[in-house]
Amino acid sequence: MTGPPPPPEAQDQDEQAQGADVRDDAEVVAQSLEHPELFARLYDQYAPDIHRYVTRRLGDGPADDITADTFLTAFRIRARYDLTRPNARPWLYGIAGNLIGKQRRAEVRALKALARTGHDPVAASWVEDTDRRVAAQGPLAGALASLSAGDRHVLLLVAWAELTYVEVSEALDIPVGTVRSRLNRARRKVRSALGADPAFTLDATEVV
pTM for this structure? Predict the structure, then answer.
């Protein structure tokens, strides 16, 4: 014979206990397979950073949709997450990067417009003073537009998302050596266009 259902207070305590011993993102993902509501922790922790990164790449309009789609996709495929990786941040940036990649023509058009005119809606949507300073430089936009999609992804994940080489490797599912070669190639083009802008010419010791 079963007893009566637990009172709401007991249910709340059970929900708190389910996530009380979670130590890292991998455990959040693992436990969310049985308790889907726990996945909201990753959204709360990482959505603002993902939204800021997408805004820098594509502007405010697409940022809302891509951020939402990033976490919807992550939730849908969470059973495939590599639980040996305690930090889900690179995984989420990788998903966001794939979604951004589907709009790469729009991104390149915006960068070329900025290079020509010095103003673009994407640049205008950036809210940090540093970004306004960098975006005002047409040569930078031109250099970014000239990069291959792969090189641009690597450069901006390091410069704007502040991922390490290893994290970029995880995000894009490419070897660390490929990250280094793409980043070096992208930096050469940016240096040629700008000189040595510290936002895009970080020393290797700063990102490993």
Answer: 0.74
